[in-house]
Amino acid sequence: MNATTEGLIALALILAALAAAVMGAALISRARSLRKRSMRLDEAVAARAGKAVSAKPSKRQGWRDRIEEIGIKGLATSIGQSLVADEDRVLLDQCGVDTAAGRAWFFLARAALCIALPLGGYLLFGDKSLVEACLTVFFGFGFGYMGPKWYMSKRAGVRRKSADTELPLLIDLLRLLQGVGLSVDQAMQLIEQDFNTSMPVLVTELRHASAQYRSGQTRESSLTRFATVYKNEDMASIAELIVQVDRYGGGVQEPLRQFGDRMRERRRFDMKARIGQLTVKMTGVMVLTLLPALIIVTGGAGFIAILRGLSQFGGMG
């Protein structure tokens, strides 16, 4: 790579960084102007009400809030919509951070990595040839774009597994509390209050569903997220059972008992299948580790005798 090509690539990267800096400065300026307008509006409203409002921003609004404001403004642009697509919002929803702040931080992380990794990779490894420089920038941009999504996918997988593990306890608690005379609403409220440490994922979803139900939504619409967010058929069945009981009345103790028995039976079969797969994998491990030692123990003496015989035969010759 000659000096002219290196200079052009460095100039292009510097211009991209300057463009990103200009965009960030414009977003910061816009956020400040909107904040000033909001403060003036608050002052006018307070003046009519006869109250005095401080012209200074709140001390609680620190650097984190300012960065979140920049991210929220960036999400409204076409670049922000492309960096935070619908499938990314599904992952954020499964991680429990599908809020304005969560989407803003995801957008800022992806945008920062998409700029920092290609530039850093070029500065470290891009001084050899044009092809290597292009590959470094390409893979740096790819890792910067996919890195936040891979991290959120891992977190979403952990939460899906936790929800599946917590579901039998939820079924048993609902059956027990409904059996002692509590209604479905009372049972769900008690679970939200006292079992947050035992079922952190499901209690969060139940609290969200209860808040929507208290705000005026129907039972079916309030449990839609609970039934679909983790793509778990058992959770969807529980939500449908609660909706049917709320609509037509009746007790849920016996249906929950039958459902719990079916779920435990299915999990028992899944565990047997997993044990069978583990047995096959352990066979390969045993062949690689135990077979050489077994051959040495059982056939070592014979091999030594053969070698001694051959050595003696060679000496006699």
Report on the architecture of this protein.
The chain is built from 12 helices and no strands. Helices cover 84% and strands 0% of the residues. It has 317 residues and is mainly α. Mean pLDDT is 78; it is low at 50-60.
Sheet with the most strands, sense and barrel status: none
Q: For the residues shown, what is the average pLDDT?
A: 78
Helix fraction, binned, reads over 70%
Low-confidence stretches: 50-60
> Overall 3D geometry?
flat
**DSSP helical segment count:** 12
Whole-angstrom Rg: 31 Å
Short description:
The chain has 317 residues and is an all-alpha fold.
Topology of helices and strands:
Layout: H1 3-49, H2 63-75, H3 78-83, H4 86-94, H5 100-125, H6 130-179, H7 184-194, H8 200-214, H9 219-222, H10 224-228, H11 233-248, H12 253-316
Descriptive tags:
317 residues; mainly alpha; flat
